[in-house]
Automatic annotation (TrEMBL):
Keywords: Exonuclease, Hydrolase, Nuclease. PANTHER family: 3'-5' EXONUCLEASE DOMAIN-CONTAINING PROTEIN, EXONUCLEASE MUT-7 HOMOLOG. Pfam families: DNA_pol_A_exo1. This is 3'-to-5' exonuclease domain protein. GO terms for biological process: nucleobase-containing compound metabolic process. It comes from Bacteroides graminisolvens DSM 19988 = JCM 15093. InterPro entries: 3'-5'_exonuclease_dom, Exonuclease_MUT-7-like, RNaseH-like_sf, RNaseH_sf. Residues 24-193 form the 3'-5' exonuclease domain.
Length: 219
């Protein structure tokens, strides 16, 4: 496999869309959270992401509304605006035996701590992890596009994550983001183990506007 260092926005716009293919469960009670965490705690690696209701008023901000955590085939959407950061969720975040993979995790955890204190363990930041594979683009959409030739839609990013009922489009968007982090990690781990990849030479690099770490806004 040839790994490109960068990918242009134009190229991404022409790629087919990627969607989480598994089952999605919305978690709205503490009991449901405990059952979800029981399953997730049995996994070796999980993908993680979060969503916050956007603010369009100066000076106004919101707490994290949704925490999505995915295995290869099941994604749980924890509605934190309804249940808060429960003891079972905190236990999972602090579990040293379950690897949590995400992008811009520092921002996610900073926002999550506004709901409750915790000390995360066994976390892998994709923006740093991809460096060893020569990937310079740091947004989730670009990393995924480079590796899978598919596009992660960002159409629901600014939707209301505190809505009484999440739409099917919101649920699929949230699940896809968490799962795609896991899928990226699994592929890179496989390539690392078998060595079956090459990094595109410098002269083939597609120019990018920025090589710096991108914030949660560009996830």
């Amino acid at each position: 496999m040839i790994i490109k260092r960068n990918i242009s926005k134009q190229t991404i716009s022409e790629l087919p869309k990627a969607f989480f293919p598994g089952r999605i469960f919305v978690v709205q009670t503490e009991t449901e959270a405990e059952k979800a965490v029981e399953y997730l705690s049995s996994q070796k690696v999980i993908g993680i992401d979060s969503e916050t209701r956007p603010s369009f008023t100066k000076g106004q901000s919101h707490k994290v509304a949704l925490l999505q955590i995915s295995s290869d085939d099941i994604c749980f959407l924890f509605r934190l605006n309804m249940i808060g950061l429960t003891p079972s969720i905190i236990q999972l975040l602090e579990n040293p035996h379950v690897i949590k993979v995400g992008l811009s995790l520092k921002d996610d955890f900073m926002m999550l701590r506004k709901r409750a204190p915790f000390k995360q363990q066994a976390c892998i930041e994709l923006q740093e992890y991809v460096n060893q594979f020569g990937i310079r683009d740091k947004s989730l959409q670009k990393i995924y596009g480079i590796l899978f030739d598919e596009k992660i839609s960002k159409s629901q990013r600014l939707s209301n994550w505190e809505a009484d009922v999440l739409s099917d489009a919101q649920k699929l968007y949230a699940a896809t983001d968490a799962w795609s982090c896991l899928r990226i990690y699994n592929l890179l781990q496989e390539l690392k183990e078998n060595g079956n990849y090459e990094v595109a030479p410098e002269e083939e690099v597609i120019q990018s506007t920025s090589f710096t770490t991108e914030s949660t806004e560009n996830k």
